[in-house]
Amino acid sequence: MASATTVLAATAGCQTNSCTPTDPGVAQWPQTRASPYNTNAVPDQSTLTAGGDYWTSSLADDIDITGLIATNDTVVVVGRTSGENNGILTTVQLDDGSSDTTHELNRRPTGPPALAGSIAVTPVLGDYTEPSTGGLVALDTASWTTTWTHETAGRPNPPTVADDLLVATSDQGDVTALAASTGDTQWTRTFGDDHQRASIPAPPAVDDDHVYITADGSAAQGIYALDRETGETQWGIPGPNIPEPLVRTEDVVLASYDRYELAAFDAADGERRWSKAMYDGGLFAPAVGHSRVFSADEETVYAFAAFVFS
Predict the structure, then answer these.
(1) Over the stretch 152-169, which tens digit does the pLDDT of each residue have?
(2) Is the per-residue pLDDT at 239 higher than 80?
(3) Is the pTM above the cut of 0.85?
(4) Which is nearest to 243 in space by CA: 259, 258, 230, 255?
(5) Domains in the chain and their CATH numbers?
(6) Radius of gyration for the alpha carbons in the chain, expressed in angstroms and rounded
């Protein structure tokens, strides 16, 4: 039986089939997104100290945890049934670990949900006949009813929510802005061309003005800032391969190249502000907190004064 403590470890550390909570292997650990600015930091969080289990909450033996997200009083957990093309979504109370209700998803979740009020929006695969497609399912955890669904041409990334804006992306170049509460489409962009669509490898960062994405493909590769209201490209930096999520903080967008470099670009116009070389292979997405930018490659963790370079 999986405890809530095990669930948290599995979600933090295991992104490959060979990975276990006690032996994470080579999987890269995802980081808290924290806010629409995607700073990957919660500097006001009280200090975490070592201690015993506060509570445990058991899930069914055949459920593999796909992801979770926490609010002030509730943890929303999504998982999938081994060997099946379906999944579950359940809520767990933070104060005592009690599980409220478990809802069956008729499609397999691929990552953690995003929350818009009481609505949990989960990325899911298409049906078993179309495994390369997918979409989003929005479930109201107050009424346990499906509020809306959205289909994507490819496998979806976890969505990004900022106020009532939800941005959906996929590995087939789709970028769609939706109303988080209703699922109504506000605008759609597709990156690539008629011969090959580009992949959007990671969820976007969003601020008051822009949606920042990366694309990877022969017809479109680089960093793009899209108008939040219309989806029109405001600026672009063709060329760089950025597989990890962008981080939007202060007046810059931070980008971890696939190897050897962390760079900061002006959020307003895309001008390159500074960069730092790293020498030990692939980079993780940066995190920001206490006026520092933290980054890591395969061998070393780096801390930079965040805005000395500006």
Answers:
(1) 989 999 999 998 999 999
(2) yes
(3) no
(4) 258
(5) 1-159 (2.40.128.630)
(6) 19
